[in-house]
Amino acid sequence: MKRFIIAALVVLAAGMIMASTAAKDLYVPAASRALGAFGTDWRSDVRAYNPNTATANVAITYLPMAAFAGQAATINVTIAPLHTAVWENIMEENFGLQPNTAGALHFVSNLDIYVESRIWTPGAEGTFGQRVPGIPATQAVAAGESVDILYVDNLSTADGFRTNFGLVDAGGVGVAYALSAYDQNGTVLGTYNGTVAANQWDQFNALGKLGVAGDTQYARLMLTVTSGKAIPYASQADNASGDAMYIDGTKIKSSGGGGGDNCGTGMLYGYAMQFNNSDWEGYISFPFLWAIEDFNLWAWQDPTPENPNNDDDFGAVYITPTNYVMWLGFSFVAESPDEYVPLSDGGPFDFSIKFTYTNSSGKQVLEATYHMVGIFQCPNYVGGDMDALVKALDATYKDYAGKWYWHFGAGVK
Q: In the chain, what are the domains?
């Protein structure tokens, strides 16, 4: 039985939390101070953490959409060592911008920092909104690269969703790009060629811009950058409530504009995302690396065909029982049901793997069984759904009862 090894950063949280990466150069891809439909009143709150023992000097630049180009501005702030800086309603309180304005924020620091943001509005009962992470500039999609964005729906029904697509120039010289939409079976639904000026941002209805009429569900977007660098994303909103969820567009990346030439062999990089369900109100992001060889699939940290069982597995689990955040080192071993998971072009796959997570003290704290069902498509793309049954092995942690559900996808790295 072949060892099934997967590299992952698993985020378990009581609210809308996704793993962030510290960097000196980061983008919050969407920020707003605007009045919207149905009496909404949107604003952005930002928090930045300095994990260093020295003061971080940070320049925050507002990169607006073309209609608000004259509002571009930079503010300079400091973050004390090991402190978290908080800017509530940053567009109005710190940049002095009244409704309406929309764009992105660019953070440049002398030290690595973490940045998180939330766009939100007061609602009839409480508030609703979406968390927007700080994306390192190194994750930008460069000329000649493509990314796939999953979970793209446009439904007119009251219980359906609509999806916006956005991107920000991350190179300072402007971006030219091609955007295509595909249905669940890989058929092209529409295409669009666009540009974003230097140090600006754009957002639009994802399928409407591509001329896709009528209700559409389970679509996929593929962005190919032809010049410059961009950080793309999608935002899917509930038609009934207006509540939205952020979808990172930098993860499922392909070199050379869409997947490579050797179908059935390659290295895949992707992610899985979970959204709210009846068992648990929260958000999980699960990046991973996979490998395929001669239409056989496995997942790995950094193996080679000669050494597929590389044991250099490590990472972190971010867990918030009763709103208490803890970092855990983990290690794990998982077994695949067969020596390989077989693939065929356009064909399905179905397998389960089991993980036991061990903290930095060597104690087993979590156990999870992941079940993945999906489709492999040439040129080298996998997508599908995953559920997990997660059990706490230590009374310190909340027993996460019930199953969690993800949608996942991966493209050639």
A: 1-20+263-413 (no CATH), 23-133 (2.60.290.11), 141-249 (2.60.290.11)
